């Protein structure tokens, strides 16, 4: 059996992920959420600045 890693684990698998794989999946999801949140916040404040400048 091939050792389970983030590269060969599929969420559709009938097997539960190992603790290490699950931790890595969760860490990557948190990093992505943090990145997209920062980008959305930046866009929001840019739009506020543009709207304020239009007045």
Quickly give the structural class: mainly alpha
Cα-atom radius of gyration = 19 Å
Give me the number of helical elements: 1
Distance between the first and last residues' Cα: 66 Å
* Nearest-integer average pLDDT: 91
Note down, in words, how this protein is organized.
The structure is a single chain. With 55 residues, this protein is mainly alpha-helical. The protein has 1 helix and no strands. It is rod-shaped, with a radius of gyration of 19 Å.
Which terms summarize this structure?
55 residues; mainly alpha; 0% strand
Chain-wise SSE layout:
Elements: H1 19-54
Q: What is shown here, in short?
A:
Helices cover 65% and strands 0% of the residues.
């Amino acid at each position: 059996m091939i050792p389970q890693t983030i590269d060969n684990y599929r969420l559709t698998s009938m097997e539960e992920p190992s603790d290490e794989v699950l931790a890595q999946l969760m860490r990557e999801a948190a990093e992505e959420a943090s990145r997209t949140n920062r980008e959305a916040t930046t866009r929001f404040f840019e739009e506020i600045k543009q709207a304020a400048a239009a007045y």
